[in-house]
Amino acid sequence: MNPDDRRAVEHDCARLIALYANLNDEARWDEVAALYAEDGVMFRPTAPDQPVVGREAILAAFKARPPRITRHVCSNVVIDVEGPATARGTSAMLLFTGDGPPLVGSFHDRFCLTAAGWRFAERRGSLTFKG
Q1: pTM to 2 decimal places
Q2: CA–CA separation, 28 vs 26, rounded Å?
Q3: What is the architecture, at CATH level 2, of domain 3-130?
């Protein structure tokens, strides 16, 4: 893989992380779920040992949430390209809600290239501490 191709993958995967945060804050659940591969797996930061498997199950999990106002801030994004169709990434996350102190955590992601472009194969969230 040449350096330009590697940078393109890094960019596309980093964009998924930012898009996920923005769509999540706007409660655009269909679009959030569409960022996962069909067989993607989600681990929420507040439930890191409870996988949600498959795009449809991920969509149902988001739609089951009570309404809330949030702002996710993601930073320190590092993407490691493993090959032409796989990559890994880490990012720091700060979540503001109107219900309490901010939550601080991270995401560890696996990405895969699909016919629709780069998608989350696995998104594993965890909390470092509560603000």
Answers
A1: 0.94
A2: 5
A3: Roll (3.10)
